[in-house]
Amino acid sequence: MNEKSLIPEKFLKPYNPGSTESRIYEMWEKSGYFNPDKLPLRQQKGEPFSIVLPPPNVTGTLHMGHAAMLAIEDIMIRYKRMQGFKTLWLPGTDHAAIATQSKVEKEIEKKEGKRRHDLGREEFLKRVDTFAQESHDTIVNQVRKMGASIDWSREAFTLDEKRSLAVRTAFKTMHDLGLIYRGSKVINWDPKGQTTISDDEIVYETRKAKLYTFKYSKDIPITISTTRPETKLGDTAIAVHPDDVRYQQYIGKEYDVVFAGESIHIRVIADTAVEPEFGTGALGVTPAHSAIDWDMAQRHDLPLKQVIDEFTKMTAGNESIKGKKVGEARTAVVEWLKSEGLLEKEEDIEQNVATAERTGAVIEPLPKLQWFIAVNKKFTLPYSNIRGLPSGSETTLKEIMLKAVKSEETNPDGSIEIIPERFERVYFNWINNLRDWCISRQIWYGHRIPVWYKKEKTVNSKQKTEEAEIYVGTEAPTGEGWEQDSDTLDTWFSSGLWTFSTLGWPEKTIDLKTFHPTSVLETGYDIIFFWVARMILMTGCLVGEVPFKTVYLHGLVRDGKGKKMSKSLGNIIDPLDMIEKYGADATRLSLIIGTGPGNDSKLSEDKVKGYKNFGNKIWNITRFILSSAAGERYGLTSVEKIAYDPQFKDWTSAESTYLKQLNDLITEITKEMEEYKFYLVGEKLYQYVWAELADKILEESKPILNGDDAEARTARVQFLLHALNTVLRALHPFMPYVTEEIWQEMNTGKSMLIVEEWPKN
RNA sequence: GGGCGAUUAGCUCAGUUGGUAGAGCAAUCCAUUUACACUGGAAAGGUCACAGGUUCGAGUCCUGUAUCGCCCACCA
Length: 761
Hints:
Blueprint: H1 17-31, H2 41-44, E1 48-52, H3 64-82, E2 86-90, E3 92-93, H4 97-112, H5 116-119, H6 121-145, E4 156-157, H7 161-176, E5 180-190, E6 195-197, E7 202-214, E8 224-226, E9 237-240, E10 254-259, E11 262-270, E12 282-285, H8 291-300, H9 326-340, E13 343-356, E14 364-373, E15 379-380, E16 394-395, H10 397-404, E17 417-419, H11 422-432, E18 437-438, E19 440-441, E20 451-453, E21 470-472, E22 483-484, E23 488-489, H12 491-495, H13 498-501, H14 510-515, E24 518-524, H15 528-542, E25 548-554, E26 557-559, H16 575-582, H17 584-592, E27 601-603, H18 605-629, H19 653-674, H20 678-706, H21 710-731, H22 736-746
Parallel strand pairs: 1-2, 3-4, 9-11, 17-25, 24-25, 26-27
Antiparallel strand pairs: 5-6, 5-14, 7-8, 7-13, 9-12, 10-11, 14-18, 15-16, 19-23, 20-21, 20-22
Helix pairs in contact: 1-22, 3-17, 10-15, 16-17, 17-18, 18-20, 18-21, 19-20, 19-21, 20-21, 21-22
This protein binds one RNA strand through β8, β12, β13, α11 and α18.
């Protein structure tokens, strides 16, 4: 081939993703086709199809898991757009409250040696905002590089003005329904982060611990076991199983003793929560420092006695205990037990220790006055579209969550389908164990709780809340002396509103009417509880709808050896690196092929490289076909160029066979697209293009294209053009850049593949 | 303690309602400028974790076992 070539010059060189991708993305953006309101008429009139992007945290940069998420969602969106749906893919980012705050706190401490309290709330929040803005810009750039056909004009942030109004409205509405309440109970306290956290933000770590078996006093006949002797200063009861014959005679008895310098009053109670087989079968009840004991205390009306403060220091006990950290106090209590001759046994055991997900600190259960969402409380659902829950019916948030999701066995009428199905059971199991959700956090970054107090806020949990005048509303109350609650909301409170807060709620917008419920929620299986369940709860309660019809869960992207990618292992593959080296198309394909929904996938650089070669293969196939159509193939450059004729019918028997094979493939993959089996579609198209079209059909065509039979040549060229045209359409959702680039060259810019039709037979 | 998933070629994984085991990568041999070396062709490679069962027939269905991984609970 030479400079006289009749085909576009760029096909004379290998495909270069680097010089193509940003140009194509810009072209798409300018076309307006990412925005459903600016789509061509065919899509304008189509059924709505919507996905809201699970907002990445503004804590830094995107990783391969995000890249996989973007690839899968873009495939769904592009496929539906080509099919003629009015598609909306809505982008956004998440302020990620505690995650972002602790990240910035660490940075400031490292660089300036200052803590957040040294800077003050206002200055600290300014710093966080700056950091969040930078992260946001990085993330947006990465999303673009992946080729995401997402509607930037509707971009949202969980902490922006509109979302803030949504949060305040949600809080007020749920408060008025009686679902949000303020109460004092044992919560998970993160002493390092100095905040409460929810049950889901706890990570259990297996550690070695000592189990101590002892008596409180010689005056109490029952022996108990614990790994935390220091908390026993706060005990108010001994619990045994009601059927335990060993302790029948003691049930109901009360004792007053002095334990390590602290006067304690112990009542013996019977509760079925006690496991008679474990230890001595008797358990010391510490209502203030154990959630389970707190529950037990509620059942038996036991008093609460706090002996540990927010800084994990003892507030009771003798002089070697009081004021000490719990670790030291534990040793001191054990010493005291020994000196009194009360310690009977000391054994090594493995224990699961609750730690805070973000800070790694050991959780200290403490009684505190916090805001909660009641999941089991009955209320009247004002409006509902959810199957099995008519408007005005009496229900609970738990029931909303149970009714919304489909389950073959227990709830066949549920409208939300989870893919893969096996996660349905995981979901239901979690809901059945669900307790009230603690939503207040003692951190600064986030949505401030929309509650104002007239008098001084109650600090001590023992004081009664009625002392302060309380106002709950979307705006600050008028008049003097009101002070807003200093706490912020759990980040998942605002994330829970995501499908509708992004569409304009609480306003009754056209977007909300058109695109809600959203079609698909595509996210990682690791946040099914954090997010998926909370969205169903919030949406059901506030909008009376399900937030989405289908939940598609993807797995974790691991390294080539199946290990979790992490900084400490140094095995992180950066999506931007891969895009730069091999292109976004190759990166996308490598994240799709070889992994089904809900399964973890393995990614190696070789895999990405392989799919880069595939992009070039398509490029070369195009070169071959275009030069054949131009007459170059058979050395007759003066022959009239053959233009693609979609109506062409004069096939030979070979071409009819090829056509049938291609049509069958299209039927198959269209079915698989509907079943969300993208990995199969990607693989089948790869297989067809390389092994069939290139290696067999093209090779077999060479003698015909070089032969004398003009009719045969025309038929063959028509088939090749048809096959290429079809394959480009089918591959577009997977490899949008290279397919669009070829399409532009073939159609001289007269149409855009992004809005062309998905192939039909 | 409860639940879920995986186990198929050296590696990564497909295998649709049961009907002669499939692909990519790697390795082997051949081809050397071919639309494409980001290449083509050929051959090789498997007791489908194990043990039973159902069946004319099981990678696929049933029961059990083992190993690995994950999730939930948190027994003090």
